[in-house]
Amino acid sequence: MFGKGKKLRKVTKIDTLVGQNTELKGDVTFKGGIHVDGVIKGNVISENDSGSSLTLSENGRIEGDVRVPNVVLNGTVIGDVHAIEGIELAANARVKGNVYYNLIEMAMGAEVNGSLVHRSEPMPMQVKQKPVEEKKATSEQQPSQSTSAPKVGTLAGAPSVQ
Q: What burial class does residue 5 get, using C-beta atoms within 10 Å of its C-beta: 0-12 exposed, 13-18 middle, 19+ buried?
């Protein structure tokens, strides 16, 4: 009757533990599983690994953005949370920022002071992006006036902004 449709959760091995009396300052990049009972003042980012997961206990706190495929929160995050696979917000979860998710489970009592944004396509996990170099046309090089193919980022038939 009850619980027949529930899926079993994949248990992730915990590779890193941040203890209750520990405070880390700076970005944390990891692969695998991380469990946080303490405080992290910086971004928490997993490498592009779909098996990575973050578990934040009710005593844990993260002051920065979180970019991890699988997230279980029961503590406080002050920053945006990007969970490309799924996020579970337990009863003591507090998020002061936006939550970007593919699948979400939210218990009664969990709080999100921001927006819940559904993303069905994966988002890049990197926080820092490399600048895009643009070629400048000189007097000798004139941009082509070809209309056979639309420019990247424009719709066919839509005017392009220069």
A: exposed
pLDDT tens by residue, 26-48: 999 999 999 999 999 999 999 87
Return all residues near 158 (Cβ < 8 A) that are at least 6 apart.
Answer: 150
* Residues whose CB is less than 8 angstroms from the CB of residue 68 and which lie 6 or more positions away in sequence, other chains included: 44, 45, 46, 52, 53, 54, 82, 83, 125
3-12 pLDDT, tens per residue? 444 443 555 6
Task: Quote the distance between the C-alpha of residue 150 and its chain's center.
Answer: 31
**In terms of Cα–Cα distance, which of 127, 104, 128 is closest to 116?**
104
Of 31, 34, 95, 43, give the one whose Cα is nearest residue 67.
Answer: 43
Residue 94: CB atoms within 10 Å: 18
CB 63 within 8 A of CB 42: yes
Report if pTM > 0.90. Answer: no
Place of tokens 């994949």: 10
Q: Tokens 């949370």 correspond to what residue?
A: 81
What is the CA 42 to chain-centroid distance, rounded? Answer: 14
Chain mean pLDDT for the chain: 79
